[in-house]
Specification:
With 442 residues, this protein is of the alpha/beta class. The chain has helices at residues 11-22, 37-42, 44-64, 71-95, 147-150, 168-179, 199-211, 298-314, 340-346, 361-366, 397-405, 425-441, and strands spanning 2-7, 27-31, 99-102, 106-109, 112-115, 118-127, 131-133, 160-164, 183-187, 215-217, 222-227, 231-235, 238-242, 244-247, 251-253, 267-268, 271-272, 285-287, 325-327, 332-337, 351-356, 372-377, 383-390. It binds flavin-adenine dinucleotide. The site of flavin-adenine dinucleotide has 39 residues, from helix 1, strand 2, helix 2, helix 3 and helix 8. Residues 7-13, 30-33, 37-39, 42-44, 47-48, 104-105, 128-131, 147, 169, 254, 257-258, 289-291, 296-299, 301, 328 line the site of flavin-adenine dinucleotide.
Amino acid sequence: MTKIIILGAGPAGTAAALKAASAGWETILIEKDKVGGTCLQRGCIPTKALLEEAHTIDLARRNYGLTQIDESAMYARKDKIVADLTATLNQQISARKIRLIQGEATFVDDHTIRVNDETLMADSILIATGSKNRVFDFPGNAKLWTSDDALFQPFPSKKKILLIGGGVIGIELAALYHSLGHDVSIFEKEARILPNAPKDLVQSLMMDYKKENIRVLTSIEIVKITQGSDFTVAFNDQVETFDVVVLCAGRIPNIDSLNLNATGVVVERGLIQVDSNYQTSVEHIYSVGDASCRIQLAHVATRQALLAMDHMIHQTPVLPFIIPNAIYTPIQAAWIGMSEEELKAKGIPYRSYRQPLGALAKQKIKGDGRRYLSVNLDENNLILGVSLYLSDASEFLPFFTFLMENKIPFTQATTIIYPHPTLSEAIGELAASILEKSKTLH
Ligand SMILES: Cc1cc2nc3c(=O)[nH]c(=O)nc-3n(C[C@H](O)[C@H](O)[C@H](O)COP(=O)(O)OP(=O)(O)OC[C@H]3O[C@@H](n4cnc5c(N)ncnc54)[C@H](O)[C@@H]3O)c2cc1C
């Protein structure tokens, strides 16, 4: 019997397989499509590659009057990045002597997997089959795109594009299309977009989107979508036509074809149920990543996979971890921990400090605007939450995560030197002003 079979080679499955193999476990990794999963093939990497390039093009257009762009060249570069990373991942998998099987896995029983014409048995099984787009049809005859389609379709001319859904994927695609010069609208069913992001960040993003003429309409009830040479969308009491409509209505776990009934693994509301060590209701079957977690992020999936393997191999109990979040718009919105709304709702005492970046030399170099960082602190200056609205904000998150994980007061950020000119100087300035204030208080 094999030591472990891992189902799905996304960020979670590949991280787990590499770790299992390093520990000397005989490892089988089964993937029905390409290694890298949603993240590498249809998610994080293609979107970020396109956003990065579109932002550069946008700056060239605004600052130097660039008029013509070849979107297909940009999409080809994105494909090359994905192909290179896929090749590297395949090399890592084969270097660790992991047996990679291409095919769709299904359970025969709780120790047995069927793939292609093979029946395989293992001591332990990890389900890391990820998620897929939530798709549904509105009344009418329209077949809508999802983000999977959008990431592969350059446009030869300006288009009028509707994104249905104001979650992270809809917001990022809006930034992409707008930077490329298309006319973009977002229709959101709920009263606010980005329900999990702090309110201050959502407001800042919305102000920028408004300034840029990216239309964001909330509380929209779509009544019908008719597809002819274009898309006619009836919503609330209006009708409007679009060239392209992309449905960005969230993602659901990819578990339907696994035949989990044969195992006794409990599924509730479409999600595999796991305990704090990522064990399902069947002790030797674990599940991590989008297949079992509502927080659908690649770094969360990877972290869970590594912790699940530690538990499987060494019985190390899993401890909670702090999750950094980022939206990769041209000015990035990033956050960790509890927002002011959350702290207020939970009745947790806090003090909030905000540092605008306007006076920083690096901010002037990058271009002006309402960029800031803010921290919510407890009475010992320990960080409860952070919001960042600035270029490359995601790059700053590990600094704050480190302080939070290690319970280091934010004021300790005054003890290091910040390179000049960088946006990171804002961190030092904010910490210094808080330290100064706390000295005056005591
Ligand atoms: C457009 C978009 C942008 C995103 N951007 C970001 C981002 O910037 N940052 C971030 O952190 N997250 C981002 N995400 C989310 C991120 O991609 C996922 O959270 C992450 O990929 C989940 O990893 P996973 O390993 O759990 O699953 P997946 O990456 O979904 O991988 C699961 C794999 O399992 C395979 N599989 C499924 N069923 C079977 C079966 N029965 N047999 C064999 N193989 C099977 C699938 O083919 C897939 O390759 C984005 C997602 C999308 C859609």
